[in-house]
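We treat protein structure as text, and this decision shapes the records that our systems exchange. Such a record has a labelled line for the sequence and another for the backbone structure tokens. The record that follows is passed on verbatim for readers who wish to inspect the format:
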Amino acid sequence: MVTRDVVFPPGRQALYEKNRYSPAIRSNGFLFVSGQVGSREDGSPEPELGAQVRRAFDNLNAILKAAGCSFDDVVDVTVFVVNPEANFETIWRIVPEYWGAAPHPTLTGIGVTWLYGFQFEIKVIAKLPESGAA
């Protein structure tokens, strides 16, 4: 059996253990990050869409930092959006605050009908810096 090299951000390990998944796994020089939503410390959603998106990115960045990398190391992004026709423009106005300069990572956007009470989720794959590759 393969041992998983799990990365936990500070202060949220209990939430991940309760929900029975790993926030991120290091493997073969890459970091595979589970979908991050705009959840508060207790797991509840931020009520407003813009705050949810910012919190999702903050949660993502905490995981990236715990693994020794940043959004600049992200090579692939998947976003899930509830009601994209209504929500996309609001979300995409916030993204540049976190995205950084070109060249940008690859992107797949998926419209969904349900995200467990959330409206936005982001999952990424990042290339670990050479010193952090496990």
